[in-house]
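We emphasize that the prediction below concerns an isolated chain of 82 residues; any contacts that depend on oligomerization or on bound cofactors are therefore not represented. The input was used exactly as deposited, without trimming of termini.
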Amino acid sequence: MASETGRMSVSVTPEKQEKLDAVAHSLDRSRNWLINQAIDHYLEIYDCQTKKIQERLDIASGKNAKFHSSDDVDSTIDKFKA
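Result of the prediction step, given as a token string:
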């Protein structure tokens, strides 16, 4: 069964294209493969960051959430200055 793929067009500067081509050549892969790898990595990082942000928001909105004023934070930091 053939995989379903979509087509998209992206414009990049000639310098970026040259760099992409050089990396793709060094890996013995196509530019398309390299760009798909970059997109996969970006989406993985985005999903991870989004999950972490949501976890922190859930904690911050919980009934046991505790917040400190900037003065309290400054005071605590000052205790560690030598």
